[in-house]
Amino acid sequence: MRMRRKKHGTERIAACAEILIENGLSKEVDPQSFFKEKRELHLEIGCGKGDFAVGMAAKYPNANFIAMERVSDVACLALEKAMNAKGERDDNLRFVIGDARNLADWFPPHSVDCIYLNFSDPWPKKGYAKRRLTHQDFLELYRTVLKPGGVLKLKTDNEGLFDFSLEQFTLCSLKIEWQSRDLHRSEKNADNIMTEYERNFSQKGQVIYSAWVRF
To answer: Which is the catalytic residue, given 73, 90, 91, 121?
Structure first.
C-alpha cells in the first residue's frame, strides 16, 4: 500500500536537520565526521518508521548508527521519532534519505562495520529478483563498503526471501555465522530490537527469519 503523502513533509523534514545528512555524504568524506565521536559504524538500509534505529542507538551508545530510507514520507516519520527520543540516547544516530544502489557513492570503501536489512521488500515475482536487497549484486555492493570481517544482519517475515538470501550468500562465498527460522524463540531474541513491522507480524503469529553473515 502506498503511504499517503505527508502534509508539510518538506518542512517537517527540515525541522529535523540536525540528525539528517542531507548533503556531504560521499565516498570522499569520512562518515564518522557527522558524529561527535568516532565509534563502530552501523548502517540500516530501509529503516521504515525508525523503531529499530532509535532503539539500537539508545541500547548501544558505543556505536554510531546511520539509518537510510528511500521514501521521504516514511523517513519523515523516522526523523520525527528520533527527534522526540533524542534524550534517550547519545548523539549517535543520523539519517539519510536515498537509495541503497548509491551506497558506493556515499560511503568510502570499507568504512562500515555492520549492515542491517530489516523486512526488506521481498519482490516475490521471479523477474524482480535483482531488486531484492540480498541479490548478489547488492551483496557485492555491501562488500565494498563493509570493513573486512564486517557483518550483514537480516530479518524478514518472508520465507521465500529468506531461502533466496541463503542461496545468494552461498553464491557470494559468504560465511553464514548464524541463522534461525524462528528468531523470537532463539538465543538471539534477548537482545533483539523489534521494528514496527516485526511487532505487527509477531502479534499475528508470524515467525521471523534471521541470518547473520560475515564478509
So the answer is: 121
pTM over 0.70: yes
Q: What is the pLDDT of residues 79-111, one digit of tens each?
A: 999 999 988 888 999 999 999 999 999 999 999
- Per-chain mean pLDDT for the chain: 95
Distances (CA, A) of 183 to 82, 103, 111, 124, 168: 26, 28, 28, 22, 20
C-alpha closest to that of 182 among 156, 163, 161? 156
Query: Cα 209–196–181 angle (5° rounding)?
Result: 10
Q: How confident is the model at residue 1 (pLDDT cuts 50, 70, 90)?
A: very low
Three-class SS state of 10: helix
Mark whether 91 is an active-site residue.
Answer: no
Taking each helix axis from N to C end, the angle separating 159-171 and 136-145, rounded to the nearest 10 degrees, works out to 60
The listed CATH number (3.40.50.80, 3.40.50.720, 3.30.930.10, 3.40.50.150) that belongs to domain 9-214: 3.40.50.150
